[in-house]
Known about the structure:
single chain, 186 residues, mainly beta, Dna Ligase, domain 1, 6-stranded antiparallel sheet, 3 helices, 11 strands
Amino acid sequence: MRKIPTLFVRDENDRRYVTAQVTAGCEWVFTDPRAMPTRKYDGTCVMFDGTQWWARREVKAGKNPPPNYQPISTDETTGKTVGWEPIEQSAFAKFHGEAIWEDTYYAPGTYELIGPKINGNPEDEATHVLIEHASAEVITLTAFDFQEMRERFAVLAARGIEGLVWHHPDGRMCKLKVRDFPRTAE
């Protein structure tokens, strides 16, 4: 899993927020009718490769990766490397174990692990569960510029949605979180 680009360019003066400039390579979100926005769940990403479960893991620049770590990509700006570690050695192993159901088929792919002990449980789940990214809730969105997108994301925030991930049939993706928008109008 490569790091998914953010739809808008981050503000160099305050990287918590985005600017109105579209990130190069993400213009398709506004121009291609096949762009599919789906709900971004607020948990932690795990992957099933068909035989083994893996947990997404970021390793900061200058830090040693954990044993059996599989690096995927390194962010040129932050120096963080994104990759996978075997789930059984991750901090989420116990919660993942609670989310797995015996005699249940899990398709190879990525999942979001959510629940009471994950990120303060913003998804308000009673138990730990896995949500397959390939079957994430599709969100109808009609926003064609920064301000319209910002207004729509205020509505999503009121529904308790962390953000969106856009998918293109050719495999491209980009994301945007509610908290990416500056608090005051530009």
